[in-house]
């Protein structure tokens, strides 16, 4: 069954909104999370980690354990998440952008 234009637009809006919630954690370490493409009919989403993520040892964990898990858990139409890192950035420049391994800071009450 084909999706209506409204259903396609709603799926894309929900995807972009969820990615916008995830981006600050990646940006805190000098990286970024970018939507490359999304096939809202088949459920395949492609994202790319950029910036400091290019040299980060846990970038594949971020993609698989974080981004993929969250997108498939929260958007029931997402069937697969393809991801990679922007390899056009020089490794030394990438390392200078951030430290990697985002650790959230919690306020003690």
Report on this structure:
- The chain is 42% helix and 21% strand.
- It is built from three helices and three strands.
- With 109 residues, the protein is of the alpha+beta class.
- A three-stranded mixed β-sheet has the order 1-2-3.
- It has helices at residues 5-27, 59-74, 91-97, and strands at residues 31-39, 44-51, 80-85.
- It has one domain: Fe-S cluster assembly (FSCA) (GMP Synthetase, Chain A, domain 3).
Write the topology of this structure:
Blueprint lengths: L4 H23 L3 E9 L4 E8 L7 H16 L5 E6 L5 H7 L12
Parallel strand pairs: 2-3
Antiparallel strand pairs: 1-2
Please sum up the structure shown.
This protein has 109 residues and is of the alpha+beta class. It is built from three helices and three strands, in the order αββαβα.
Provide keyphrases for this structure.
single chain, alpha+beta, GMP Synthetase, Chain A, domain 3, three-stranded mixed β-sheet, 3 helices, 21% strand
Helix-strand category: alpha+beta
Number of separate helices: 3
What name is given to the CATH topology? GMP Synthetase, Chain A, domain 3
Q: Report the strand count.
A: 3
């Amino acid at each position: 069954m084909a999706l209506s234009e409204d259903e396609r637009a709603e799926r894309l809006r929900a995807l972009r909104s969820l990615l916008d919630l995830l981006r600050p954690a990646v940006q805190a370490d000098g990286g970024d999370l970018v939507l490359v493409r999304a096939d809202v009919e088949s459920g395949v989403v492609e994202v790319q980690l950029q910036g400091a993520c290019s040299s980060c040892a846990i970038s594949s964990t971020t993609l698989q354990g974080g981004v993929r898990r969250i997108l498939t858990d929260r958007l029931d139409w997402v069937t697969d998440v393809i991801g990679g890192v922007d390899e056009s950035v020089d490794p030394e420049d990438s390392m200078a952008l951030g430290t990697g391994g985002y650790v959230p800071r919690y306020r003690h009450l």
